[in-house]
Write a structure and sequence with these properties.
The complex is a heterodimer. By secondary structure, chain A is mainly alpha-helical. Chain A is built from 3 helices and 2 strands; from the N terminus they run αααββ. A two-stranded antiparallel sheet of chain A has the order 1-2. In chain A, strand 1 and strand 2 form a beta hairpin. In chain B, 27% of the residues are buried. Classes of the chains: A mainly alpha, B mainly alpha.
């Protein structure tokens, strides 16, 4: 038992018998069955995932194209609602409508001019001086106050006199 | 292997089946039943998770991790009572045994050498003729003047005796 290969041969023979060939063959068959099933499952899974992905892409693209106008109109509506309130009116029934009709020519009433026109003649008045004015207003208490060059203001002591009174 | 190629799997079994089996015999402390169950579970895991490895050492290391986790699961099955303890210990076990990946055969060889040395002289001589002298069964039978079948039968008995003694000692060593 000098060489390692001799030891290995003995080792394999001694412990190889503990695991019979039938067990080994059965395990090999089972391994192959499992690995092939896994391989098939993986392939099917990948194909299914690809199909699902493609389906999703198609559905999403259709969804986005059909929904786009709605989205825009919805956005516009929201904007309008914010700025004013829309009130919808309905036409009144014909019976509730009041209409006007033009009168016949015989039904017109004409207006008669009767008021006379009063005109002022340029030679019909005379300028009076301050004393004459004050005499004219006597006995009402009043005064003439100079408020500027050639400008005077007539002031009544009783405010009611300023509204007017019969002249003597 | 990942595609279920028959030849690839046969090649894998030729290279690693016996090695994994011996590794599990050492890891299970000589329990053949547990080693067989664990090997079966480990090989199913190999089939499920097989991938590309850079070299043989990394591949073997991966195989031993699968074997140890399969063994831990088998132990868990048989010892439900210690389920939580087992789960707690499992990671530590895998880590601890990692360094012994390549030592399983070495350990078995040491034990085997010891038991070959303790065989009766005639049996020891027969083993030496077969495994050191590399002589065929026919040559040995001719020399001993017995039939080939008798030599095969005797060799088989000696190997079984060596296996039992080695596994027994493996179990005893671990317990000590």
């Amino acid at each position: 038992m000098k060489r390692e290969s001799d030891e290995d041969a003995l080792l394999k023979d001694v412990f190889g018998e503990a695991a019979p060939a039938s067990f080994r063959e059965a395990m090999l068959g089972e391994s192959l069955r499992v690995v092939r099933r896994c391989y098939r499952t993986r392939r099917v899974g990948r194909a299914a995932a690809l199909l699902v992905l493609l389906g999703l892409v198609v559905v999403l693209s259709r969804h986005s194209t059909s929904r786009r106008p709605d989205v825009l109109s919805k956005a516009a509506t929201v904007k309008v609602e914010k700025s004013y309130t829309l009130v919808r009116s309905q036409p009144l029934p014909v019976a509730a409508t009041v209409t006007t009709r033009p009168l016949l020519s015989g039904q017109f009433i004409g207006a008669t001019v009767f008021a006379g026109i009063v005109r002022t003649r340029p030679d019909g008045f005379r300028a009076i001086n301050d004393d004459e004015l004050l005499a004219l207003l006597s006995p009402r208490p009043c005064a003439l106050i100079q408020v500027g060059p050639n400008v005077e203001k007539l002031v009544f002591v009783n405010p009611d006199d300023a509204k007017g009174f019969p002249v003597n | 292997m990942a595609h279920g190629d028959d030849t690839a799997w046969r090649s894998f079994y030729d290279q690693y089946f016996d090695r994994l089996w011996r590794y599990l015999l050492v890891t299970t402390e000589g329990s053949e039943d547990l080693a067989r169950e664990s090997l079966q579970a480990a090989l199913v895991r190999v089939a499920r998770h097989i991938k590309v490895f850079r070299d043989g050492d990394i591949f073997w290391s991966w195989l031993t991790v699968l074997a140890r986790t399969a063994l831990a699961d088998e132990r868990k099955k048989t010892r439900r009572y210690f389920f939580f303890l087992e789960r707690f210990k499992r990671h530590a076990e895998v880590e601890r045994d990692d360094a012994n990946d390549d030592r399983a055969d070495e350990r078995l060889n040491i034990l085997l050498r010891r038991h070959v040395a303790s065989l009766p002289p005639n049996e020891q001589k027969l083993i030496e003729q077969k495994y050191i002298g590399r002589r065929t069964v026919r040559e040995i039978a001719g020399e001993l003047r017995v039939t080939e079948k008798a030599v095969e039968s005797q060799l088989s008995r000696i190997r079984r005796k060596l296996k039992d003694a080695t596994l027994k000692e493996l179990n005893r060593e671990t317990r000590e």
